[in-house]
Amino acid sequence: MPTANVKSVDDQPPARRPGRPRGDEARVAILEAAYAILEEGGLAAFTIEGVAARAGAAKTTIYRWWPSRESLAVAAFLSVALPRISFSSTGSAANAIRSQMLRLVTVYSGKTGRVVRDLVAAGNSDPVAAAAFVESYVRQRRQAVREVLQRGIDAGEFRADIDFEAAIDALYGPVFYRLLVGHGTLDKTWTKDVADIVLAGLKPQAPEIKNGDQSRTGTKGTKARPDRVSRGS
Amino acid sequence: MPTANVKSVDDQPPARRPGRPRGDEARVAILEAAYAILEEGGLAAFTIEGVAARAGAAKTTIYRWWPSRESLAVAAFLSVALPRISFSSTGSAANAIRSQMLRLVTVYSGKTGRVVRDLVAAGNSDPVAAAAFVESYVRQRRQAVREVLQRGIDAGEFRADIDFEAAIDALYGPVFYRLLVGHGTLDKTWTKDVADIVLAGLKPQAPEIKNGDQSRTGTKGTKARPDRVSRGS
Amino acid sequence: MPTANVKSVDDQPPARRPGRPRGDEARVAILEAAYAILEEGGLAAFTIEGVAARAGAAKTTIYRWWPSRESLAVAAFLSVALPRISFSSTGSAANAIRSQMLRLVTVYSGKTGRVVRDLVAAGNSDPVAAAAFVESYVRQRRQAVREVLQRGIDAGEFRADIDFEAAIDALYGPVFYRLLVGHGTLDKTWTKDVADIVLAGLKPQAPEIKNGDQSRTGTKGTKARPDRVSRGS
Amino acid sequence: MPTANVKSVDDQPPARRPGRPRGDEARVAILEAAYAILEEGGLAAFTIEGVAARAGAAKTTIYRWWPSRESLAVAAFLSVALPRISFSSTGSAANAIRSQMLRLVTVYSGKTGRVVRDLVAAGNSDPVAAAAFVESYVRQRRQAVREVLQRGIDAGEFRADIDFEAAIDALYGPVFYRLLVGHGTLDKTWTKDVADIVLAGLKPQAPEIKNGDQSRTGTKGTKARPDRVSRGS
DNA sequence: GTTTAACCGAGACGGTACGTCCTGTCTTGTA
DNA sequence: TACAAGACAGGACGTACCGTCTCGGTTAAAC
């Protein structure tokens, strides 16, 4: 679908409204100040007044463009953190996921983890901001995982009948669980263990014989086995 | 040394400190008011002043016993929510887990879910309160799961070499993930799908014929109990 | 260069600082509420919160403009009580003082006396406010007395060598003494008696017969009247 | 007069009330702590809790014996400051007064002045304490002055028709005026000047030759006691 | 080339809640 | 009964931010 076309129709190409156009300096200064504060002091230190002061902007300017503290926090985060996801597109899908998880866990162990934690918490009191965060950050990342999963299915690494959403939640849920609840650390061994368990659960499996013999006939099927789908068993 | 003596000296846990003893009425009134507010209005509405007013207590009384808003929130939650976990102890371990997950998801879909979400967020700005929440609420629940997992291992349902912590995170992480991030609902189908994936990953599996490179079996001695495993096979 | 130009550039004393200018409504409302409370309930009832509530203003607004409870009290008093002193400028200086003292005592017997008492007490715990009170209220009144004294000296009613400050203190000290310590009432007879004593002490007098003559003749005054000093007796 | 006798009759001879008798240690400790705080930090620092803590006493003990903060302050002051007044009983009455004023001004320039100022202010919000202060401290001092004045009258130094109360207020009012209002310092020169003015006003004076209009002599029979005046002679 | 509408900074303002200090009352155990 | 200890309801403190509201002054398209 020609997106360009849509755009030229939808957006007002010359649609110049009268009056002074929005200056970019204020916007950028605010977002940078916002992110800096978020990273340095967390949500607690993140106040509109603080951001305004640090950005040399007026509170009103902030309120003009962002409806709430939370929205601003999310926007600040996105402006900094959006442009980076990466999956190794070579090798097995399982290994791609494994290595991406490790990378994520490394990132989340640092300042970014703190910030993400804060943003999720912030989302708690501003559903709109929460939605924005999910839509722009979470969803996107999940989409990338989904593609790798699909690749794995195509390659026969994974069962074909898996529910993508459930699978992604199973893979990344534990990471967020620990990040957010904080009952354990995000170390590499743990990450590998979790990945192993879930990836094992995604593999095409012998039919549930349940009596002990797991004779795995031809485990390595290239394609999913719809016939095995009989899940409920 | 006379034990009796030691005892008579040592054993005065309720040692009657001087001064007026703490009255229980205030404590109870405060916790009840706190929980009520938490449930009705969430963290946003949860203010010390609000709780004090509703409880008919003085702010100072609250501050005397709880160091922060967050601590109070956690305490209020625990005073209400602690006395209930339940695993069906009959049937297969997998099914016990499955049904418990469904029950949890049901609970978390209601008011309790909102509250737990708030508490996790609150923990974000008060590490002490967070620790209390984890220690008293999370840890306990995890312990229950751990026991069921062990039962499953003993019965040959699960692999013997699983890392308990990772397994528990794999099972319940997704639930918290959705609860906290809010990118999807906690419906039953999804719950079952997640459970299926993870439980499948915990099942004893045919040795990795694939490359053999992942033969990690038994390496993780600490967590798994090879001696007990007795190898379901 | 045209003077007009210079003027138009230079003459901007009220220089319009940036930002929303201070509104007068709040200021007036606060001062009025403050004075009302001060008059009704005295210092004890005079709380910032009370004033704010009564004025329909925010506490912060008060704190923005007055550094302390005491400052506000003084300001409130001054805004009401400043514009009134009056000395009869006819007749003898002594009589002018006498009648002014009577008027003062009358005023101080009423609500104003209570307020002044409170303000002096307040000054006790805020030196800055005390200074403001002295500077704007006390000093001004004393200046008026000083002028009358000078008139009296010029007219030969009073000695020329009197120390103005001491004289004023001698005249009005007793009034404040009774007002503040409260060991006696401010009645008219007493006032007259005090005035008589002190004014007698200010009159040109026969040289001290006691130990010879301390002829202090014309030492200090601008317009002393040595002729009168010369012993009427 | 045998005071001891009176006492043994008046006080409860064996009148032992039941229960633990009042210990003097607490009383003394409280008064000492109270005075210390009063002297160190003024009224602002003078809190019941502070005194209790410093005295190692319980708040209740203080409330049992003193009805208010102000009463305690006055009591503490009196317990320390009562036992000292002194007039030189030799020389002229005028000089006795002069030197006593100087001594008073010296004392009031130090810590005692601060404390007296505080007590007068305190009296403002507790009439009972104010009365106690006046009755026990002020009145007593004034009585001493009254005696010296009488001596002066008897010796012909002062007019016989002076109103004692007015005279005392005229003499000491200025000192309190400056002490309490703080518009000037209590230095020696000023003190002498004031004393000179007022004492001059008390001297027997030549009949008003000027216009004769002020011939008021002897009109004020009520206050002066001509009959008593004759006495000393 | 003037209008004119929006942008932007500054800061006043009414508010809410904070966490602290002190008040005056009470309840308890010990002397 | 006196006393120390300390819980408790409550009132006010002074502070930090909130979100809204004037203001003065840009700034650039539209008239």
Automatic annotation (TrEMBL), chains A, B, C, D:
Residues 47-66 bind DNA. Residues 1-23, 207-233 are annotated as: Disordered. One of its GO terms (molecular function) is transcription cis-regulatory region binding. Keywords: DNA-binding, Transcription, Transcription regulation. Pfam families: TetR_C_11, TetR_N. It comes from the Bacteria. Residues 224-233 have a biased composition (Basic and acidic residues). InterPro entries: Homeodomain-like_sf (IPR009057), HTH-type_TetR-like_transc_reg (IPR050109), HTH_TetR (IPR001647), Tet_transcr_reg_TetR-rel_C_sf (IPR036271), TetR_C (IPR011075). The keyword Cytoplasm does not apply. Residues 24-84 form the HTH tetR-type domain. The keyword Transmembrane helix does not apply. Gene3D superfamilies: Homeodomain-like, Tetracycline Repressor, domain 2. This is Transcriptional regulator.
